[in-house]
Amino acid sequence: MALGQLYHQSCFVCNKCHQPFPDGAFYQHENQLLCETDFNELAFEKCAKCTKPIDGECFNALDKKFHPNCFRCQRCDMALKGGFLRFDEKPYCRTCHDIVVKEEQEILANSCYRCKKRIDGPPFLYRGNKYHAFHFNCTTCKLELGPDCKEHEGKLYCPEDYARAIAPACFACKKLIFGQVIQSMGKAFHADHFVCAKCESRFSDGIFYEHLGQALCELHFREATGTRCARCKCVIQGDVVEAAGKQWCANHFVCAGCDKSLAGDSYGDWDGRAICAGCFTKLPTKVRKRLNDHRIHVEKRYKAKNGNKTSGSKMNLNGPNGKSSGSKVNLSGGAGGSRGNLNGSRAQLGGSRPGLHGQ
């Protein structure tokens, strides 16, 4: 008989493990008959560390119960009877707590943003976070990326496909440019393909002239813009002399009367022809007067437009009798052999840098 009940001998067993009671000893708990082992498990709290029943002093921490001697520092195993610090839901003494916090900070500083695992070697930085590169695939070839992958316009590429993604296309051959690139006129060229649009020769000293969107050498630029010598009618090569409203080869700028070179000398304008002072004095008086009247008229218009500044140098030309005829001609000054106005831009090539345009 137990708990006021009668049992068969074979039915008198522990209500939990259904085993006979050793030596007939049993325990009563919540109207159940239990062996000593099951009674201890049900009647007493279990220690969160050793899982054994706590039948004496109990230590409550981390929302769990412990034997006082089982509640220890997670790192150094020192009993924490005098207090503890919590980190990652584990108890630590103060010294160990500071150490594990520092270690965790170091791990987080070099851990993958996606998988949270430590990154060995250089991390892959993407949108401000660190990753293992193998979490991504190349936009073009779809292969798994390595630490040397690159980002372009928000997309990720392996090194080979990145080079293709950023490479400009040559304006001449339409192929991608790898290596040295010439940037000019808002276009990109292979170094070997940036040539004169007419003769396809490379530019001497890197100087070219732009005309109607094309790069030209000096010869073909002058040919295209009509820079021809007033005497020989050929395209001017080399220095240009501008005088008498025309352009000349430097060695062809001579007096229309005696073929004397006017380079560095004063000259007069005789109906669009340049003449030296000596030949001017040989002209008929009426012709010299007409030229002088024209000069005065031009000079007045120039002064009216520009103030009292003179339009050029003046020279007294004597008549046949050695007396001053009173006529003056407007002289355009000496021919200095300077490069003339080419009505276009010229540029200096700078290797892979853009051309710098100037006059």
TrEMBL record:
<keyword id="KW-0862">Zinc</keyword>
<dbReference type="GO" id="GO:0045216">
    <property type="term" value="P:cell-cell junction organization"/>
</dbReference>
<keyword id="KW-0479">Metal-binding</keyword>
<dbReference type="InterPro" id="IPR001781">
    <property type="entry name" value="Znf_LIM"/>
</dbReference>
<feature type="compositionally biased region" description="Polar residues">
    <location>
        <begin position="307"/>
        <end position="329"/>
    </location>
</feature>
<dbReference type="GO" id="GO:0046872">
    <property type="term" value="F:metal ion binding"/>
</dbReference>
<protein>
    <recommendedName>
        <fullName>LIM zinc-binding domain-containing protein</fullName>
    </recommendedName>
</protein>
<dbReference type="GO" id="GO:0005737">
    <property type="term" value="C:cytoplasm"/>
</dbReference>
<dbReference type="Pfam" id="PF00412">
    <property type="entry name" value="LIM"/>
</dbReference>
<dbReference type="GO" id="GO:2001046">
    <property type="term" value="P:positive regulation of integrin-mediated signaling pathway"/>
</dbReference>
<keyword id="KW-0440">LIM domain</keyword>
<feature type="domain" description="LIM zinc-binding">
    <location>
        <begin position="168"/>
        <end position="227"/>
    </location>
</feature>
<feature type="region of interest" description="Disordered">
    <location>
        <begin position="300"/>
        <end position="359"/>
    </location>
</feature>
<dbReference type="GO" id="GO:0098609">
    <property type="term" value="P:cell-cell adhesion"/>
</dbReference>
<dbReference type="GO" id="GO:1900026">
    <property type="term" value="P:positive regulation of substrate adhesion-dependent cell spreading"/>
</dbReference>
<dbReference type="InterPro" id="IPR017351">
    <property type="entry name" value="PINCH-1-4-like"/>
</dbReference>
<feature type="domain" description="LIM zinc-binding">
    <location>
        <begin position="45"/>
        <end position="103"/>
    </location>
</feature>
